[in-house]
Amino acid sequence: MDTPEPISLNKQKIRRATQMTLREQLADRWALIADLLKRLWRSPSARVGGFIVIVTVTTAIAVPLFDDYDALRDRNLPARYAEPDCVIAVVQSRVLDSRPDIAWEDMKCDFPFGADKNGRGIMRRVGHGMSVSLWAGLVSVAL
User: Fold this and answer.
1) Cβ–Cβ < 8 Å for 127, 113
2) Nearest by Cα to 84 from 115, 42, 107, 60
3) Which of 26, 51, 101, 131 is most buried by a 10 A CB count?
4) Separation between Cα atoms, residue 31 and residue 22, nearest integer Å
5) Cα 96 to Cα 13, 83, 89, 110, 137, distances in angstroms
6) Cα–Cα distance for residue pair 124/112, rounded to 1 Å
7) Other Cβ atoms closer than 10 A to 96
């Protein structure tokens, strides 16, 4: 069995830790952070997860900056339950390539994820939902 260290040695360690200068404490912390980042960078799953987190947070921050969303104003009743038109455009690319009378510029990608029963784009709603969720998480952590 391990024998516990005498109390005098523990006191010496505590005294040594409290007598460290601020510069030494910061250097010790930066060494730990550098080791953590090095280990994370070596792990492929950590890199993939970090990339997903960065993309999600960037999207949640960027969507409200570039898109003014108002649920009542953005209703488009003729587009109720619209299909995801960008996916259909990619699937039908051979048809469009074989028909030169339809230009790529004429294709619209108004509803990449489709539309709901009020004709609002689901992709826009998901982006704004990400923003609201990010703020709710930050506020709950801050409290």
Assistant:
1) no
2) 115
3) 131
4) 14
5) 75, 18, 8, 18, 45
6) 9
7) 16
Domain ranges of the chain: 1-41, 42-142
Map residue 115 onto helix, strand or coil. Answer: strand
**CA distances from residue 120 to 81, 108, 114 in whole angstroms, order as listed:** 9, 15, 8
Q: State how far the Cα of 107 lies from the Cα of 89, in Å rounded to an integer.
A: 8
Token readout for 21 is 């200068």
Residues 6+ apart with CB under 8 A from 50: 40
Low-confidence ranges of the chain (pLDDT < 70): 1-19, 87-108
For the chain, give the percent of residues with pLDDT over 70. 71
pLDDT on residue 142: 93
Distance CA 137, CA 143 (A): 10
b/e burial code for range 55-75 (CB count within 10 A of at least 16 → b): eeeeebeebeeeeeeeeeeee
Query: How far is it, in rounded angstroms, from Cα 128 to Cα 123?
Result: 9
Q: Residue 61's closest CA among 119, 123, 128, 142?
A: 128
